[in-house]
Write a structure and sequence with these properties.
single chain; mainly beta; two-stranded antiparallel sheet; 34% strand
Length: 155
């Protein structure tokens, strides 16, 4: 199976928070129950700005569209948009955008017991990183945005 790789045209720049018009979307006080339904509440707690929620470091944040299925078990699906923060230090277990052998990929970073990039799909083998290899981490994936409706998301 082909793994997901990216080219420079796959990256979508994050709009700076100062340039973006705040889109205030209602955030309900009551959490939604995923099990049995609960009585509806008529109260809205506050407005929610997705830029403020998803982008902590605007100057260091970019978006990338996902290709491939190697991260399905992490909840990352083809055509999802990933929010990637370059200001964060990648740690063991983070999902990262990494460059290895000149190709970009999204994988879970493991630093122990040895350095490797792990797919979150058993159909894809782990990528062991030899000591001599140059591995560049482009950023830490902080959010995955995917469409749940039957209508395809605009591209």
């Amino acid at each position: 199976m082909a793994d997901q790789t990216y080219s420079a045209t796959d990256f979508l720049p994050a709009v700076s928070l100062s340039q973006a018009r705040a889109l205030k979307i209602p955030l309900f006080i009551e959490a939604i129950v995923a099990g049995f339904p609960s009585p509806a509440q008529d109260y809205v707690e506050q407005a929610l700005d997705l830029n403020k929620l998803c982008i902590k470091h605007p100057a260091a944040t970019f978006f990338v569209r996902v290709k491939g299925e190697s991260m399905l078990d992490a909840g990352i699906y083809p055509d999802d948009i990933l929010v990637v923060d370059r200001a964060l230090q990648a740690r063991h277990g983070d999902v990262v955008i990494a460059c290895l052998h000149g190709e970009l990929t999204v994988k879970r970073l493991h630093t122990r017991p040895s350095l490797r990039l792990l797919a979150c799909n058993p159909a894809y083998p782990p990528i062991d990183i030899p000591e001599a290899a140059e591995l560049d981490i482009f950023g830490v994936v902080t959010y995955a945005i995917h469409n749940l409706s039957q209508t395809p998301a605009p591209r």
